[in-house]
Amino acid sequence: MTSSSDEQISIQARSGSHQFVAPARVNLIGEHTDYTGGLVMPMAIPFTTVAQLRSATDGRYSFSSGLFSAGRSMATDDRSPRVGDWSDYPIGVLREFQQRGLQIPPFALHLTGNVPLGAGLSSSASVEVVTAIALLSHAQATLPIEVIAKLCQSAENNYVGSPCGIMDQFAVTAAKRDHALLLNTRDLTFELLPMNNNSLSNCRIVVANSGVRHSIAGGDYGLRRREVEVGQTKLLQRFPELRDLGDGTLEQLSACADELSPESMRRCRHIISENQRVRNARQAMLDGDPARLGSIMTAAHASERDDFECSIDEIDFLVDAAVSLRGCYGARLTGGGFGGCTVNLVNAADVDEFTSAMKSAYRSKFSLELETYVCEAVDGALARNAAQHTNSIRETN
Ligand code: ADP
Ligand code: MG
Question: At what angle do helices 290-303 and 262-287 cross, to 10 degrees?
Answer without folding.
Answer: 170
